Amino acid sequence: MDAYLNCLYQHISEHIETDARLNLMDYRRWNAAQDMAWSALERALTLEQLKLVEDYRSAWCGLRALEDELLFQSAVDLGKWMVLA
Known about the structure:
0% strand; elongated; mainly alpha; 3 helices
């Protein structure tokens, strides 16, 4: 992704919670559910098991971030193509 697209992507990512199109009730509900699930894992797992889960979560988040960037770039490319067509 070039510098302009990266800047645009970062701006959108940082302001997603204030986007009027975002269903904030669902977002907050899923965010709270994630927090509760993580707290339950912390209580139930040993330190070694928790480290494995954290390693997995870190790898998953890295992959998910890359997928989001690729999706964003594809959407921008499609928009450019539609304008030129």
